[in-house]
Fold each of these.
Amino acid sequence: MTSPRRGAEGRALGAPVASSSSGSPGSPAHGGGGGRFEFQSLLSSRAPGADPTCARLRASESPVHRRGSFPLAGPGPAPAPPGPLPEEARMDLNPSFLGIALRSLLAIDLWLSKKLGVCARERSAWGSVRPLMKLLEISGHGIPFLLGTLYCLSRSDSWAGREVLMNLLFALLLDLLLVALIKGLVRRRRPAHNQMDMFVTLSVDKYSFPSGHATRAALVSRFILNHLVLAIPLRVLTVLWAFLVGLSRVMLGRHNVTDVAFGFLLGYLQYSIVDYCWLSPHNAPLLFVLWSQQ
């Protein structure tokens, strides 16, 4: 007599044979549960209890991972893209022609200014000429010009003299204002071989561009040539004085060559402004009346 257990096993073993003759394997009606059991057993091998190393290897062999060549996005927010590099860390591989020209001009300016600074120190090549260069420096300083103009204006007793001196005072004040404004905007340092032993140093004079002595020399020389009747030798000496004042600024190491060149140009243009805004008893009567009362 067959035991119930053996009969159950016989039926379980015989079920696939019967189903293979009458229907397609895996159908529910013909004992297809065995296929589902095998599929579930495969899934159970990949359950959380499986080997994590194998799971990682399978993830790395995934076609999606191979195509993307980057790790799969996690549940957190995506990382932000890297920001742009700072300006000092960038390299300009294609500079413009203007930039190259300006850098070349600056290099030539620094080299030439250093070569011409032969009186910058006592031990320089022309150190013995320093007293003469400092005398030229004092002759182009703004304070002697302002004090001298005010003194002559107070001693003048003619309307024509007062008019000329009043406009000279206006030109000197305009020069101080424009030079201080440009120096504060540009803020170019003085040459490295400069010795800070100037006659009088103001806070704005620690900057180099433009040269205030050069602007004042060009302005005053053009003013004198246009409003004073001078002989030809004196006119030549006036122009030579303005040129030597500008040259002394480079030889003493106070300024670069471009500082003096721009100073000459600025002083020349400043006189055009003064000539256009010329003060006279007709267009500024109140100013002349107040000054005459003093």
Amino acid sequence: MSLKFVFFCLCLWHLLGVSAVKMDEMKSAEVMEGDSVTLHTDVTEIRSNDLILWTFGPKDTHLAKISRAHHEIFHDSVDGRFRDRLHLDSQTASLTISNTSTEHSGPYKIEIVSENRVSSKTFSVTVYASLSIPVITSYSPSSERPSSSKCVLLCSVVNVTQVTLSWYKENSLLSSISIPELNTTISLHLEVEYQDNNTYSCVINNPISDQAQHLNISDFCQPQKSSCIHRVHSFTEDVIRLVISVLVGVATVTVLIYDIKSRRV
């Protein structure tokens, strides 16, 4: 770019009486669902001829506007998602969104048009869904390993987004799995010894919140008897039943023979 071209642009802006658009860096805000978030403009006072415009989303959908020249302050709802949730500060033009939900996540932009200047600021808002406490279930190893001394624990959460699910032993991380944008159900398993006396926890968290479920191994896992013992017990019971049946049969035959002989005599 030549110096002559730069000088030409500066002269043109000066003749038009408007300075170049000032773009601030994007600011981020993260809140939990149901909380309020305020997007601060860092403006101390709006001048009489300033025009303030708030937009939302990639399409810059109109949200709110302040025009002091016409003494006009109003809010405009988008798809009903912002109805009765917006508050616009008439002194600083800061925008507050109350009772937020995940559908309020996205980019917000404010443009301030003055007599000889246009400035703007962009915000990235992320609203995280409330986290439920993980559910832990247990199951014994398959019958193919009847003598196993281990128990399998399964930690699950349903309909979650942007979370990490982890198993901890005391304060040490054992395993974890992360979920991106889409709502889904996730589970994470852990194999432990029946006689393990350590403290385990299943934790679900996002960048600003977490929920944990602690467990006692003895409450979830009970040692299973070996199938060999079951087979021995079953065989013994069958033998006993057979012996009893034979004895009953012999006794019955003996009584019949005795009865017949008695009648002949």
